[in-house]
UniProtKB/TrEMBL annotation:
UniProt cross-references to InterPro entries, sorted A to Z: ACMSD (IPR032465), Amidohydro-rel (IPR006680), Metal_Hydrolase (IPR032466)
Keywords: Decarboxylase, Lyase, Signal
Protein name stated in the entry: Amidohydrolase-related domain-containing protein
UniProt keyword Signal, yes or no: yes
One GO cellular component, as annotated: cytosol
Stretches assigned to the Amidohydrolase-related domain: 74-319
Keyword Signal: yes
GO molecular function terms attached to this record: carboxy-lyase activity; hydrolase activity
Length: 319
């Protein structure tokens, strides 16, 4: 395998509120050792990277911190800064930001990139009330991404109070939790957000914006033809969605280990916008590595394309 760079790899800050940690109850039940792995930014993490042949991990806070005031994000980013410094080049950082407080989010994103050397941001997909980032109050946040030419990774987060009931029903509470999160809702919600940003004209206002969507593109690649056709009715966007998708959106493989969606992605997504990622510790680096080997063996990609997905595209995007 070529060197591997991964971009959706999570930790929990020492100051994470207990209420937020409680959101991971399903993962605690089903993923052995997940809390220990989330809380480690040194030996355990590096050992797990070695097992999966990960050369460089870009670490980011797990979902949910964006609803808390800026001091939580600052503390988390400071911890990553220290961990990166002590990692002998094995770690880099994506900033977390308090998206429920847009002005503070912009300021913290700016501090993390300009003062701490972070290579971008990974943020919760909506604020604490389920609000998205297509309004004017988020313009200062997007401005930071453009000014420093760094990507923003839109990462799914837990349903807000008004979103939660649509995932509840006459079934097991674990099923409700999964339906609202990694079993469906997260991905639909993040795909929707990308389309909302497009509909709002954000990509015309900020044509150099770089957005990363994980989990093999949060359903967008599979729906791309239909979205492209229908969205042509929407507005005055200078570039249509298909063009914006090709120019402004990058996708990662995080946590989806199947060649089926990959066939679709290879057919309709520029090869240099497809990035390997794991979603550690919710899935393991070894499982990701085994899938990369399967992709390589499958003949769906050339050696050169495999290297691009493994690390070259990430090097280019993160500089
Ligand atoms: C993620 O960060 O993508 C994630 C979680 C919890 C469970 C599954 C998952 O935070 O993919
Ligand atoms: Zn994730």
């Amino acid at each position: 395998m070529p060197p591997l760079i991964t971009l959706e790899e999570h930790y929990l800050s020492r100051d994470t509120p207990d209420a937020m940690k409680g959101l991971f109850k399903e993962q605690v039940q089903f993923v052995p050792g997940v809390m220990d792995k989330l809380e480690d930014l040194s030996c355990l993490r590096i050992a797990d990277m070695d097992k999966g042949e990960v050369t460089l991990q870009v670490v980011s806070h797990a979902a949910g911190l964006g609803s808390y005031p800026v001091n939580y994000s600052r503390a988390a980013n400071d911890q990553v800064y220290e961990a990166v410094k002590n990692s002998k080049g094995r770690l880099a950082g994506f900033a977390t930001a308090p998206m429920s407080y847009p002005a503070d989010a912009a300021a913290e994103f700016r501090r993390a990139v300009s003062k701490l050397g972070f290579v971008g941001a990974l943020v919760d997909n909506h604020d604490g009330n389920g609000g998205y980032f297509d309004g004017e109050e988020y313009d200062a946040f997007w401005a930071v991404a453009e000014e420093f030419d760094v990507p923003v990774y839109l990462h799914p987060t837990w349903p807000s109070e008004d979103m939660a009931p649509r995932f509840e029903g006459n079934f097991d509470p674990i099923a409700s939790n999964s339906l609202g999160s990694s079993g469906w809702g997260w991905h639909a919600d993040t795909g929707l957000h990308v389309l909302r940003l497009f509909a709002s004209g954000l990509f015309d206002r900020r044509p150099k914006l770089k957005i990363i969507a994980g989990h093999m593109g949060e359903m967008i690649p599979f729906m791309l033809q239909r979205i492209g056709k229908i969205s042509a009715r929407w507005s005055t966007a200078q570039r249509n969605f298909t063009t914006v998708y090709r120019e402004n959106i990058w996708i990662t493989t995080s946590g989806v280990w199947s060649l089926d969606p990959m066939r679709c992605i290879l057919a309709n997504t520029p090869i240099d916008h497809i990035l390997y990622s794991v979603d550690y510790p919710f899935t393991s680096n070894e499982v990701g590595l085994a899938w990369m080997k399967e992709l390589h063996r499958s003949g769906l990609v050339t050696q050169e394309e495999c290297e691009a997905i493994a690390y070259k595209n990430a090097e280019k995007l993160l500089r």
